[in-house]
Write a structure and sequence with these properties.
It contains 13 helices and seven strands. The protein is α+β, with helices and mostly antiparallel strands. The strands form two sheets. Strands 2-1-7-6-5 form a five-stranded antiparallel sheet. It has a two-stranded antiparallel sheet with strand order 3-4. The chain is globular and about 55 Å long. The mean pLDDT is 97. The protein binds glutamine. Its EC number is 3.5.1.2. Keywords: Acetylation, Hydrolase. It comes from Fervidicella metallireducens AeB.
C-alpha cells in the first residue's frame, strides 16, 4: 500500500504547478504550493502515508463536517435541517445570490459557507469560547490527536478579511436562520476553520465515518450510524461544492475539501483518507489532491457506485 501511495503522489505532483494557493485569506498565501501528501487509515487500524504527509494546514471547509456532526448531536437532525437545506449547489462556496433566491432563504446545504455558519450557530455552549472549546475537544477525540490547536495567525487573517462571510451571516440573521449574536457565530466559524491539522488527522476522521461512527482504533462509538450516514451522503452531493458531481463520477468517494488544501475522504467499510495539496483549482479544491484520489480510487476500486 505504501508503495502504491508513493507512486501515485509522485505521478501527480506536477499538477501542483497548475494551481494557486488561496490568497483571499492573506495568511493562506504563505502555504507551500508544491506540497502534496496522503495518509490512509484502514478500518483495522493500519496507517500508510506518502509524500509531504507531515505538512500542517488549516482545516478550513473540512471543519464543516465536524460541526455538522456536533450540531446534529446537540440538536437532532430535524432542528439542524430546519435551518439548513440538503441540496447541492451549482454556485461557488461563498455565493451570496443563492441565499435569497433558492430554498426559501435557507442556505442550500451545510458544506457551503452560509450553511456552515448557520450550522455552527446551532452548536451548544453558553459563550463563543465554550463552543470553540467543544469543537476543539470533539475534533481531538475523533482524530485521536490531543495536539490540535487553532492557528491564531490564520484565524486573525480571516477575521480581518472575512467580509463576504459577514454579509452571508447578517443576511441569515435578517431571515431568522441565525438567531443569536452574528459576530459571535462568525468568530466561532473563523476559529473552527483555523484548526491546524495534518493529512493523518483527516484520514482518521474519515475512518470514523467509514466505520459508521465507531473509532476503529478504540472501538468507541462516537456518533450514531445514522449521523455518519447523513454526513457521508451530504459529502457526496455537496462536499466539493459545485464540483461535487464531477468528483462523484470520477472518484465516487464521500469527501470534503477545504481551501487550506486538505481533502477528507471516507470509503465506507474500508478506509479513511486524508490528502494535502495547498495549490487549488478554480473552484477551491486541491488540484493535485483530486488527481491523487482519482488514481487511488481507480487502482483500488474505491468508488461507492
Ligand atoms: N472553501 C473553504 O474552505 C472556505 C473556508 C474559509 N474559511 C471561508 O470561509 O472562506
Amino acid at each position: 500500500m505504501k508503495k502504491l501511495l508513493e507512486a501515485i503522489v509522485e505521478r501527480n505532483r506536477h499538477w501542483t504547478s497548475q494551481g494557486e494557493v488561496a490568497s483571499y485569506i492573506p495568511e493562506l498565501s504563505k502555504a507551500n504550493r508544491d506540497a502534496l501528501g496522503i495518509c490512509v487509515v484502514t478500518l483495522d487500524g493500519e496507517e500508510y502515508s506518502a509524500g509531504d504527509y507531515e505538512t500542517k494546514f488549516t482545516m478550513q471547509s473540512v471543519s464543516k463536517i465536524v460541526t455538522l456532526m456536533l450540531a446534529i448531536l446537540d440538536n437532532g437532525k430535524e432542528n439542524v435541517f430546519s435551518k439548513v437545506g440538503m441540496e447541492p449547489t451549482s454556485s461557488s462556496f461563498n455565493s451570496i445570490v443563492n441565499l435569497e433566491t433558492k430554498n426559501l432563504n435557507k442556505p442550500l446545504n451545510p458544506m457551503i459557507n452560509s450553511g456552515a455558519i448557520a450550522t455552527t450557530a446551532l452548536i451548544a455552549g453558553e459563550t463563543p469560547e465554550e463552543k470553540v472549546e467543544r469543537i476543539l475537544k470533539f475534533t481531538r477525540r475523533i482524530s485521536g490527536n490531543p495536539d490540535i490547536y487553532i492557528n491564531e495567525d490564520v484565524y486573525r487573517s480571516e477575521k480581518e478579511t472575512g467580509h463576504r462571510n459577514r454579509s452571508l451571516a447578517y443576511f441569515m440573521k435578517s431571515t431568522g436562520v441565525i438567531e443569536g449574536n452574528v459576530e459571535e457565530s462568525l468568530d466561532v466559524y473563523f476559529k473552527q476553520c483555523s484548526m491546524e491539522v495534518t493529512a493523518r488527522d483527516l484520514a482518521r476522521i474519515g475512518a470514523l465515518l467509514a466505520n459508521d461512527g465507531i473509532l476503529p482504533w478504540t472501538g468507541e462509538k462516537i456518533i450514531p450510524r445514522e449521523v455518519a450516514r447523513i454526513v457521508k451522503t451530504i459529502m457526496v452531493t455537496c462536499g466539493l461544492y459545485d464540483a461535487s458531481g464531477k468528483f462523484a463520477v470520477h472518484i465516487g468517494i464521500p469527501s470534503k475539501s477545504g481551501v487550506g488544501g486538505g481533502i477528507l475522504s471516507a470509503v465506507p467499510g474500508r478506509m479513511g483518507i486524508g490528502v494535502v495539496g495547498p495549490a487549488l483549482d478554480a473552484k477551491g479544491n486541491s488540484i493535485a489532491g483530486v488527481k491523487v484520489l482519482e488514481d487511488l480510487s481507480r487502482e483500488m476500486d474505491l468508488s461507492i457506485f
